[in-house]
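User: Please predict structures.

Assistant: First:
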Amino acid sequence: MIRDIDYVRDLLKEKEKKVTTEEDKEKIENLKLILENDKIFFIMDTSTAVGILDFLEVPIDEIKQLYFELISSANYFKGDKQYFNLETRS
């Protein structure tokens, strides 16, 4: 199953429970705003995306795979209206 923006939002909720510094609390609040956009990982540059995933404590060996899942075509079209509906006719 391909992980999506909701997975990242869940990671953010878990991280929020653990933060203690004001700096990290501010980062959490900023990330909440950023992650309101379902397509944000398609818009931001790769280094920013990797930095966010690292901050959310995604293991370093999983970051690349998760990033590619987040920017997959399945996630891009998820929730969008289907403009191309192919049906087979008998």
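Second:
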Amino acid sequence: MTETLFILSVSLMFLLGFAFLTWYLINSRPRKIARRKALLEDSLERLKLISYELLKNVDEYDQAKQFENKALDSLSSRSLKNISSDSALLSESLETIEHLLKKRKLDDANHILAASAKLAEKIQSDMSTIAPDGIVLKIESRKKEKQ
């Protein structure tokens, strides 16, 4: 009789523990999703600032070369065309990320956001090769961090 009572009490403890764990996981999921979405939206805003600065610097460099009436060497010309096409791809990917965030497809948005950040880094390094003194990006968050 005591063995049966012991087995029943241990089984009841496991059942209650499993029920509590299930309840906790179900209730914490929406908070995790909301937190992840907010983090991705913040990262998107930062990437927008970076892409704006990159596009502005690429345009300024292109305009400066046109006004100097210097013929670009073939390497610089090819690099500038690649940078321009990469910049267009970057701006299109920002719209895609926004759309995915609205649809709550966070994994897809995260993958495209990471690829876009790598593309922005590539654009910056390409610009620094053709205009070494031209690009220095300093992006600061507008939000104050909680202490």
